[in-house]
């Protein structure tokens, strides 16, 4: 039953991550991975899962943010609120 529940949670988390920015995706993946590793190291304890999840979320957010930054690209938002990247205007640093 635990494996079934874990599969459901992973499936829902994966589906929810499809609408996220790379920073948010990195944090979610890092938190999940960190929680699994923390649980394995702690021997199934909740403390290890919480600590691993927190550390993993922070590390994943940093990695996701690094991927998100693209030199020479600017972030724009259209009138509908959608975000996109495009080349920066000439002379923009």
TrEMBL record:
Protein name according to UniProt: Glycine zipper domain-containing protein
Residues in Glycine zipper domain copies: 26-70
Residue ranges the record marks as coiled coil: none
Signal peptide: 1-19
Keyword terms: Signal
InterPro entries the record matches: Gly-zipper
Record bears the keyword Signal: yes
Organism: Martelella mediterranea DSM 17316
Pfam families, sorted: Gly-zipper_Omp
């Amino acid at each position: 039953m635990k494996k079934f529940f874990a599969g459901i949670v992973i499936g829902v988390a994966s589906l929810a991550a499809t609408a996220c920015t790379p920073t948010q995706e990195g944090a979610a993946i890092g938190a999940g991975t960190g929680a699994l590793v923390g649980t394995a190291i702690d021997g199934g304890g909740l403390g290890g899962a919480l600590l691993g999840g927190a550390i993993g979320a922070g590390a994943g957010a940093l990695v996701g943010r690094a991927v998100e930054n693209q030199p020479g690209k600017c972030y724009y938002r259209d009138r509908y609120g959608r975000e996109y990247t495009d080349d920066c205007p000439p002379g923009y640093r």
